[in-house]
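New to this. Explain these tokens.
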Amino acid sequence: MHSFEELSVAFAKRFTDRHFPDHPASLYDPSVYFLGLGGKRIRPVLCLMGNELFGPIEEDAWLLAIALELFHNFTLIHDDIMDRAPLRRGMPTVHAKYGPATAILSGDVMLVVGYDYISRISSPHIRRILQLYNQTAVKVCEGQQLDMDFESREVVTMDEYLQMIELKTSVLLAASLQIGSILGGAGLGNQQMIYQFGKNLGLAFQIQDDYLDCYGDASKFGKQVGGDIVAGKKTFLLIKTLEVASEAQRREMKALETAPAEEKVAGMLRMYQQCGVDSWVRELKEHYRKEAYRSLEEIAVLSKRKEPLRQLVDVLLTRDH
């Protein structure tokens, strides 16, 4: 069995190969630039770990891992355009560096190249894998649309937000694990349990992300701290604050909507602290961490085979960037 860190290193060696032609450089260089910014490569490694939980890692798992990472980066390029984000991993986003039109095309071609990697696998389970992959891709798009819809809505409930996060973030983590498990020969029951594990891990991961957006170290987080506040995004912190805030606090938050960015961020962080939401969100993360562990324990394999995934939960949910 391999740790997340060991598989990350092994995947990085394979992923550094150029995935695109040289010409036209104006189309492909932005994609190469974006992949060169790095990232945690969580989804492809989850695919490898899902495979290894049930058997030796197969060559097909590496191909699918690359496809999943290309798909994820395709969504990030397009998300950055929609969010008008200036930075990604501490560097200019593709649309900021090359323009939105080129960024759209570069994201598109990244998606297509991902499908080309899937076409190379020899697994007899390819139809089931492709079906799950496509279902997941649709759900991710649904989640991003809901995320944008929420920006213009006055009220978003916690249940609605959780559904959006499940679609936008959790399902891709869950599907990466399940795809790996399919390659490893897992039965349907084990596939369902590893999917649930990934889904709960994804929710806890996003809660941590919302928290770090407000309280993370900008030099480590790689994004504009308070960016969600400036963009008016509904997050766990904002939704809970609106649930518990007094009328006076609500009026103050309303006034902050048109304040300059720095003043808006400082004011909202003050509101979060006054309402105790900064502590509450950490408790919510712990709830989904426990749910992830519970699903993992239900998977019918030897306990020692699950240890790398247990360690991964701790790594992802104690990160500071």
Remarks:
- The chain is about 75% helix and 0% strand.
- The two ends are 27 Å apart (CA to CA).
- The longest strand covers residues 87-88.
